[in-house]
Amino acid sequence: MRRLMLALLALPACLPMQQLLETKRELPVTKVVLYQNGVGYFERRGKLRGKEVELRVRPDQVNDVLKSLSVLDLSGGTPSSASLPVEKSGDRLAQELPPQVRNATGMLGLLGVLRGAEVEVDGDEGALRGRVVGVETTQRRYVNGNGEQVSAEPILTLLANDDQLQTVAVSQIRRLTIGDKTLSVGLQQSLDISKSDGAWKPISVTVRLAGDESHDLIISYIHEVPVWRPAYRAWVESGKNIQLQGWAVVDNVSGEPWEDVNLTLVVGSPLSFRYSLYAPHSVERPDLSSRLPQVADAPPPPDVGYAPEDLAPAPAPMEYAAKDAAGSGYRGGRPMAKMAAAPAPMAMAAARERAMDLDTRMQTARAQASEQARAQEEVARRDAMQRSAQALVQGREVGALYAYEATTPITVPDRSAALINIVSRPIAGKDIFLFRDPQSGEAPFRAVMLQNGKESAIEGGPITLYIDGTFAGEGFIGRVAKDETAFVPYAKEGGFALNLQQESRNDALHLAKIVDGRITIQGKRVMTRTLKLTSNRDKPSLAYIKLPLTAGMDLVEPPKDLVRAGSDVYVPVPLEAKGKAEAKLVEATPVEFVEMGLSPQVLAAFRYYLQGTNLVEAVAGPIRELLAAQDERAALERDQDNLQRQQQILASDGQRIQGNLDSLPLGAVAADLRKKLVDQLAVTSKKQGEVAKKLVEGQVKLAAIDERVRTLLAQIELK
Question: CB 3.0–4.6 Å: which of 414, 489, 559, 577 could bond 445 by disulfide?
């Protein structure tokens, strides 16, 4: 019999793990999917026997769970219902309880509440039954090593069934049974109020299943979780692709550990919201019985759709032994018995030369060995970095979302955070200089240009840069979609001078139409921004200059390797060491304007029209006359300008001569000089008259030309 009992006690340890799992009432979490909208999807899976399975959730999770709970029985069964305690607010429950019950705490407080109630007390002296009379405090005297001591001790008084009063020290009570059911329920409700005050205290959701057979269940739901966050590291080496490594920070505050779960991190934010389902809702309802339908409608037709190495040791130092001459000299650091004669001066010089040559070779060998060891160290570092950066997840597109799925089970203890490698791959890019605001005069940033490929998007987050194996700075990378390029500044550096020049002009103007003398000209407005960059660095550089695009204008022959990012462009400017370079950004937009006369834009459009092949002679003839008239008018205007300058000079000369005359004294002494000045004034006045006449004649001719131009324009019609 004893052996049989031991065998039965040891039996559960021999049961398979799956069979043990079948006896559990609460299924373990087996899958977690975290989204970037603040919710997580959870799956619990396991086998069990019986009709009920329990799901324990925190009060702050219960609304999301009720909104999304799904139960699947892979064994063929079906869930019949799910139940949970009705939520009542603490204030409402408290209003339903007597104040003595609401305020009772501890044994003494509870006994005060129970005065008059039937109770049964089990203590050191046995069981007592009766009604609670009250609790009083008595003085108890006792003697110890410190002498006589006095302590206060509460005593419970009970009225027994035989009308006797019995007392028992409260400290001796081991168990108290309340005979009044109402008070017992009230006490439980007051404890429920305290329970609801802590969000960490779970609510039990019981799922009932049809049938007593084995059930293979998947229970899934969502609830609010912290957003997972990516962080990146990038290793940059000259002439090589950038090695990008991304980690995701995952927080588990669900209230239970995630042990060996299938973890998925989803990029994107499906729509989600909060909605109160746990708290009962009551509304006042109007009576709309009169609106009951009299005829039932037929159901609509169904919708039909389609489902879419270790390091090699460094060479050992070379060892050299001094040669002995003719079997004599030093060998092995000890003098030989027989000393050789002193060497001749030439021999000593040759020996010194050989020693110097030997020393040079040794230094060269040591330098080569050090360089070889450094190169091997760099190779080992790079290999170790690539081994340590193996991604623990694989990515795939899920509709409009992108998911990183862990390739091995993940464990994250409750109230813990975990770093999970989600990206590890080479990415095209280079170390550059970036002018983010070329007009500010500020020094450029050192930056890394990342050119994402077609593998997957890169989510935004902090990034740490290592240049040639050394920490270089930190930056922040925004979301980089497939085939997009990102610039990540990480430090500032001077050594450059930038000059930005801007020019705007109208180009390719042509005649669109002429109606009633109104000339419509079409063409394009061209704006050119010239970037002149000077480098004071000892090495070649590649700079990118950020410029805003002009609204409504298009790029014309953009520079090679230009990067466009929304309403901005990044213009590349390669420079030699201590060199200068220039780049241009040209934009153009169509323009149209109306003129009433021969403005420079109209004349340019007329000449452009006459250069065409599809000429209409009825239009081309008058245009030629107009251009000839304009040339004539231009010549007349030049003559008028010359005449006006002559007129100004003659007027000035006349004023000067008149002033000289006014300053001469009267008499015979100045008579000759006076006569000469009078003659000069007459000649000047005559010339002024001739110039004035020519100016008037020129004005008349200009008016005639203008009239002829208006007449010719009125005769031309081009639509």
Answer: 489
Question: Are 527 and 658 part of one and the same domain?
Answer: no
Q: How many domains does the chain have?
A: 5
In a domain, 457, yes or no: yes
Query: Could you tell me which residues come within 8 angstroms of residue 285 by beta carbon, excluding any fewer than 6 positions away?
Result: none
For residue 615, which amino acid is it? Answer: L
Please provide residue 215's backbone torsions phi and psi, each rounded to the nearest 5 degrees.
-125, 130
CA–CA gap between residue 510 and residue 514 (Å, rounded):
12
Handedness of CA 18, 24, 25, 31 (dihedral sign): negative
pLDDT greater at residue 294 or residue 617: 617
What is the Cα 683 distance to its own chain's centre? Answer: 86
> What are the pLDDT digits (tens) for 225-274?
999 999 999 999 887 889 999 999 999 988 889 999 999 998 877 788 88
- Among candidate residues 445, 463, 494, the one where a domain is terminated: 494
12 in a structural domain: no
CB 33 within 8 A of CB 223: no
pLDDT score for 25:
64
CATH of residue 162:
2.30.30.720
3-state helix, strand, coil in the chain (%, to 5): 30, 40, 30
Residue-wise pLDDT for 375-399, tens only, equals 666 556 555 555 554 555 666 666 5
Buried b or exposed e, range 658-692, using 16+ CB within 10 angstroms: eeeeeeeeeeeeeeeebeebeebbeebeebbeebe
Specify whether 555 is located in the same domain as 641: no
Q: What is the pLDDT at residue 544?
A: 95
Q: Give the residue carrying structure tokens 């405090």.
A: 137
Of residues 429, 495, 85, 398, the one with CA closest to residue 236: 429
In a domain, 93, yes or no: yes
For the chain, state the CA radius of gyration. Answer: 51
Count other Cβ atoms within 10 Å, centred on residue 134. 13
Quick check: pTM over 0.70?
no
Q: CA torsion 647→649→652→653, rounded to 10°?
A: -110
pLDDT tier at 190, thresholds 50, 70, 90: low
pLDDT at 21 over 50: no
- Full residue range of the structural domain in which residue 521 is found: 497-596
H-helix or E-strand spanning residue 104? none
- Give the per-residue SS3 of 265-314: EEECCCCCCCCCCCCCCCCCCCCCHHHCCCCCCCCCCCCCCCCCCCCCCC
Q: What is the pLDDT of residue 144?
A: 73
Query: What residues form DSSP beta bridges with 218?
Result: 45, 72
Of 581, 596, 611, the position where a domain reaches its end is: 596
Instruction: Give the pair of three-digit tokens for residue 34.
Output: 């975290």
Rounded to whole angstroms, the Cα distance separating 518 from 621 reads: 18
CATH number of the structural domain spanning residue 639: 1.10.287
- Show the tokens assigned to 515: 């109606």
The pLDDT of residue 584: 94
Beta strand 70-73 with 470-477 is unpaired
pLDDT in tens, 403-424: 888 888 999 998 899 888 888 8
Residues 189 and 247 occupy one common structural domain: no
Q: Are 418 and 487 part of one and the same domain?
A: yes
Is 8 part of any domain? no
On whether both 692 and 640 belong to a single domain, the answer is yes
Closest by CA position to 517, among listed 592, 593, 594: 594
* Residues 561 and 654 reside in one and the same domain: no
* Contact indicator for 463, 234 with CB cutoff of 8 Å: yes
Verify that 634 and 660 share a domain, yes or no: yes
Residues 576 and 664 in one domain: no
